[in-house]
Design a protein that fits this description.
Helix content is 55%, strand content 18%. The protein has helices spanning 7-55, 63-73, 109-121, 147-200, 216-268, 276-302, 317-328, 351-371, 402-406, 424-434, and strands at 77-82, 85-91, 98-103, 127-133, 140-146, 313-316, 335-340, 346-349, 376-385, 388-395, 438-445, 448-456. By secondary structure, the chain is an alpha+beta fold. The chain starts with 6 loop residues before the first helix and ends in an 8-residue tail after the last strand. It is built from 10 helices and 12 strands. It has a 5-stranded mixed β-sheet.
């Protein structure tokens, strides 16, 4: 029974069923034709016997010869009808009762089929009368005969048709089975085998060919499987690289934390310097070192590619943008920075997260302008919206390349700068979402790029 649960087995059953149904549709008119031919043959033999007797009407015909003629014609009586008169030619000695009369002269196809089916299923013997055209202007011929031999002959004919049908349907089913298994089932089994092998070991399994089958539907499935395998292998390789990168970052962060601790101790001495430049830069340097140390500690604490949960609080946007400018841009450089954030405007966010978002965006803009080999400008604008604060980071650089737009916020895939890791925008988008905001690319082109960062606002009485 397992065979019939397979596609090949069911195709075999369908082929056998279709052939048998076709044979049934052919059998019904065939058995009706067989009955008609059988009765016509009896009429023809009876007509020959009648003509022989009429030719010898002046001579006495022995009763044994008459009986032999009736026996050979397989009838009980023979009568001719001419000019509205009926002439009994031969008759069996014992009288019989005729139960039904069949006239073959004007019987339609439907009538013949119905009468044939009735004869086929009837088992009790009975006498019938059959009337047919004698031909050549000889009038009509009428015979009486037993229906039992006719029924037996029809059933034997049906059995032969059944055996032939079973043979034909079996051969057809086997042929359909073999052909379908070769051109349909085997390609499907190859696809399933490739999928199973890939599921067991996706990194080492052989790449499935893009198109092996001659059937377009299976060829499309093979192409889709090959594409899926390539994408999943790429994702697995990227995940593996991320895991390796995470381990490397954890190791580097451990050593970097120790270096930053030493730098913090040295930077603390700058706070008491009498030099006005040193006293102005010292606190900002210490702040930068504190951020770096905190980031290293966070990386070591979590040990995976997840950011620390945000600790939102009111943030002065203009002051934070100034810190970003000091961290990214140097005075008198080829790339100028403009802070257009209004004084006193705040947003509800984690200060460290927001600093990293703006730093990534500003550094990307600066590097894009420097890569174009010309001076430029990076500007930050801030505006209050209904329930939110919007920051726009704009530059007049060359804009983002089309390839970067396809996976702009995807790690390792959305890098806008050649040689870059493609992590800056991915990290910025993730941090924005964690703080209840959203980072989008608002515009890009030959005139530069504009990123829009939306963050929740704070109530006026919560401003720092």
């Amino acid at each position: 029974m397992t065979l019939f649960r397979t596609l090949s087995g069911r195709l075999f059953l369908v082929a056998v069923g279709v052939v048998m149904l076709t044979e049934v549709l052919v059998f019904v008119p065939s058995v009706a034709r067989y009955r008609e031919d059988y009765l016509m043959l009896r009429l023809q033999m009876a007509q020959i016997a009648a003509l022989a007797l009429l030719a010898a009407e002046d001579e006495m015909v022995e009763e044994t010869l008459e009986a032999e003629l009736l026996q050979r014609a397989e009838v009980s009586s023979i009568a001719l009808r001419r000019d509205a008169s009926r002439q009994l030619i031969l008759a069996a000695p014992a009288g019989v009762m005729v139960e039904e009369t069949f006239d073959l002269r004007d019987a339609g196809a439907a009538t013949l089929v119905v009468e044939a089916l009735r004869t086929l299923v009837r088992t009790e013997p009975r006498m019938i009368r059959v009337i047919g055209d004698a031909g050549m202007g000889a009038g009509e011929i009428e015979i009486t005969m037993s229906e039992a031999p006719l029924g037996a002959a029809m059933r034997a004919f049906g059995e032969r048709i059944l055996l032939i049908s079973l043979f034909i349907s079996g051969m057809t089913g086997a042929l359909v089975f073999l052909v379908c298994r070769r051109i349909i089932v085997r390609p499907i089994e190859r696809v399933v085998g490739d999928m199973t092998a890939f599921a067991r070991d996706p990194e080492r399994a052989a790449q499935a060919p893009a198109a092996r089958s001659g059937l377009s539907e299976i060829r499309r499935a093979e192409a889709a499987l090959a594409e899926m395998q390539a994408e999943l292998r790429g994702a697995l390789r990227q995940k593996s690289r991320l895991a390796e990168l995470g381990a490397a970052v954890a190791k580097i962060s451990h050593d970097l934390r120790n270096m930053l601790a030493s730098a913090q101790l040295l930077a603390d001495r700058l706070e008491g310097s009498a030099d006005p430049v040193v006293s102005r830069i010292g606190p900002k340097l210490i702040g930068s070192l504190d951020r770096a140390a905190a980031l290293c500690i966070s990386t070591l604490s979590h040990g995976r590619a997840e950011e620390a949960p945000p600790r939102p609080r009111p943030v002065d946007l203009r002051r934070l943008v100034e810190d970003v400018a000091d961290a990214v841009f140097e005075e008198g450089g080829a790339v100028a920075f403009e802070n257009h954030a209004p004084a006193g405007m705040t947003a509800q966010a984690d200060p460290e997260h927001l600093f990293r978002i703006l730093t990534n965006l500003a550094r990307n803009a600066k590097q894009a302008i420097e890569g174009a080999g010309r001076p430029g400008r990076v500007s930050v604008f801030a505006a209050a919206e209904e329930g939110a604060a919007a920051l726009v980071i704009a530059d007049d650089g060359p804009g983002l390349p089309p390839k970067a737009l396809e996976n702009l916020f995807q790690p390792f895939r959305g890098g806008a700068r050649r040689g870059g890791a493609g992590l800056g925008l991915a990290i910025a988008a993730e941090l924005a979402a964690m703080n209840g905001g959203r980072l989008i690319l608002e515009e890009t082109g030959a005139g530069g790029a504009r990123f829009r960062l939306t963050l929740p606002r704070v109530a006026p009485d919560q401003a720092p």
